[in-house]
Design brief:
By secondary structure, this protein is an alpha/beta fold. 49% of the residues lie in helices and 12% in strands. It has 15 helices and nine strands. The protein has a seven-stranded parallel sheet with strand order 1-4-5-6-7-8-9. A two-stranded antiparallel sheet has the order 2-3. Helix 11 runs parallel beside helix 12. It is globular, with a radius of gyration of 19 Å. It starts with a helix and ends with a helix. The structure holds coproporphyrinogen III. The site of coproporphyrinogen III has 23 residues, from strand 3.
Length: 347
């Protein structure tokens, strides 16, 4: 590997500049991606290793310090027994949303090779091409459960929380099945060659701190503690809207804690502790502002990290589809140049 700056930052080792990548760095804001999507469906791209590899590599010309496998958090649901599609303009649509204990009992606790082998094939192929670290990932049980129960995206998560509150046995069975599948799947991606893993708990910020502790944390800990004990790759524990949850997320686990833009980075880092690395946390919509303004926001994030070892620059959530590519490139270059300059000044 030619550039392991990202991995060193995950381990809180000193680096000569702040490494960065962006969540959803492969996707519709890039014309190369849109050209491939005109020919193939999202699921075809994910399930055909040659195509998934090609899409993973597309954004790397912009200068990111890590690649993230092109896939989706929902893919394990299909071999577990819940089929879905990405409908045009609607996002994911689960064909038969979960409404009963009987449906949960039928979900299969699969081994990743049963139905997700293409993911490990893509990882193996990517490892031969890449000179920067490869991030594998999975969805966290709450976020996956919310799609299974709501049937797609949701504003208030009413059905999900209703099951959580009124049918705790069903909820716990569902969360246990999901977390065991995710644990096995993440372990398998590491075995296949992933250099780091990210657990996406994108919607967990919908919960109060107490509900997180009661209904979610043990399941997330099941995954993160296992990875921590039995692999040596860094694991990024990511969520959004997590201002009330950071201390609990820290306890659940993760080498690196993801911070979104709502929590100032300096405050978030202090709360998760300087004995952990952090990733974040520019608002993705800043990339729609004029470049000079976007640079000011990026500088603010760097300043908040105070040059401390263990900061990975990222957005607080995924890059949005209409984001101007030129601004993304300008921010990648700016973060590299500005953080190099600051490190030189400090030493
Ligand atoms: O970061 C990367 O570049 C890797 C690829 C990646 C995708 N999805 C590709 C994708 C990753 C890491 C994900 C994770 C994911 N998927 C999450 C967690 C991260 C987050 O953003 O919170 C979630 C919640 C999903 C579920 C999902 N998949 C949604 C809600 C949607 C539709 C919304 C949208 O952006 O259209 C998807 C589809 C999806 N996943 C696309 C991509 C590039 C768009 C597909 C297309 O081309 O139409």
């Amino acid at each position: 590997m030619k550039n392991d700056t990202f991995l060193r930052a995950c381990r809180r080792e000193k680096t000569s500049y702040t490494p960065l990548w962006m969540m959803r760095q492969a996707g519709r804001y890039m014309s190369e991606y849109r050209a491939l999507r005109a020919k193939y469906s999202m699921l075809e791209l994910c399930k055909t290793p040659e195509l998934a590899v090609q899409v993973t590599l597309q954004p790397l010309r912009l200068g990111f310090d890590a690649a993230i496998l092109f896939a989706d958090i929902l893919l394990p649901l299909e071999p577990m027994g819940s089929s879905f599609e990405f409908a045009k303009g609607e996002g994911p649509v689960i064909h038969e949303p979960i409404t009963s204990l009987a449906q949960i009992e039928k979900l299969r606790v699969i081994e990743p090779e049963d139905g997700l082998g293409y993911i490990m094939t893509s990882i193996g192929m990517l490892k031969k091409e890449l000179q920067i670290p490869l991030i594998g990932f999975a969805g966290a049980p709450f976020t996956l459960a919310s799609y299974l129960i709501e049937g797609g995206k949701s504003a208030h998560f009413v059905k999900t929380k209703k099951m959580m509150y009124e049918a705790p046995d069903a909820w716990n069975l569902l969360m246990s099945k999901l977390s065991e599948v995710v644990r096995r799947y993440m372990r398998k991606q590491v075995e296949a060659g992933a250099d780091a893993m990210q657990l996406f708990d994108s919607w967990v910020g919908q919960l109060s701190a107490q509900d997180y502790v009661d209904y979610v944390k043990p399941h997330v800990a099941h995954i993160l503690q296992d990875l921590q004990k039995n692999t040596n790759v860094p694991v990024i524990h990511f969520g959004t809207g997590t201002h009330a949850l950071l201390e609990h997320q820290r306890e659940a686990g993760g080498t690196v804690l993801g911070l979104d833009w709502r929590t100032p980075l300096a405050e978030g880092w202090k709360r998760v502790g300087h004995d952990r690395a952090v990733q974040g946390n520019m608002d993705p919509t800043v990339l729609f502002a004029p470049v000079e303004i976007a640079k000011k926001h990026a500088a603010r994030v760097l300043d908040a990290a105070e040059g401390r070892a263990g900061h990975i620059f990222n957005l607080g959530h995924g890059i949005l589809p209409e984001t101007p590519v030129d601004t993304v490139k300008a921010i990648v270059d700016f973060v590299h140049e500005e953080s190099t300059r600051q490190q030189e000044q400090r030493s």
